[in-house]
Design brief:
The chain is mainly β and 143 residues long. The protein has 1 helix and 10 strands. It is 9% helix and 40% strand. The strands form 3 sheets. A 4-stranded mixed sheet has the order 1-6-5-4, with no helix packed on it.
């Protein structure tokens, strides 16, 4: 069997062991992507091995908080762990959402270890055209 050594992976593993798993008072960070797709803002969080019931999503004013807990698999007494690199514990991420997002209509979907939040852009923040009246002296906004 061929074994390859990555010194940075070993450093990450060692740091994780020294700091211990994340707790509710001191959670670890979770990786994410954020992008705009048409009239929605999309945020995707990587949470492999986390069950949907271990994910907590809160929105207070314009602060979005996502917390998740990866629990150890149930093991019997005759199991001897040879290698453990998958982090366990609590993971969390907080995002300040712009006032232009509609936090009342966030949709959450969890599939294949990825939590995807779709946040619609508020109507008041969408671009509008402004028509100019010639000679009448009035201007009109259209959506």
């Amino acid at each position: 069997m061929l074994m390859r050594t990555d010194p940075f992976r070993e450093l990450d593993r060692l740091a994780q062991q020294l700091m211990g798993p994340g707790t509710w008072s001191k959670p670890s960070a979770m990786p994410m992507d954020a992008y705009r797709e048409a009239d929605e803002y999309v945020v995707a969080f990587d949470l492999p091995g986390v069950s949907a019931d271990a994910i907590d999503i809160d929105v207070e004013r314009n602060m979005l908080t996502v917390k998740a807990e990866r629990r150890p698999a149930a093991k019997t007494d005759d199991v001897q762990m040879e290698l453990s690199e998958r982090p366990l514990g609590v993971f969390s991420r907080q995002l300040v959402l712009a006032d232009t997002l509609d936090t009342e209509h966030i949709k959450a979907d969890y599939d294949a270890g990825v939590l995807t939040l779709r946040i619609p852009i508020a109507e008041r923040a969408k671009p509008r055209k402004m028509s100019i009246g010639v000679g009448t002296g009035h201007k009109e906004l259209s959506g």
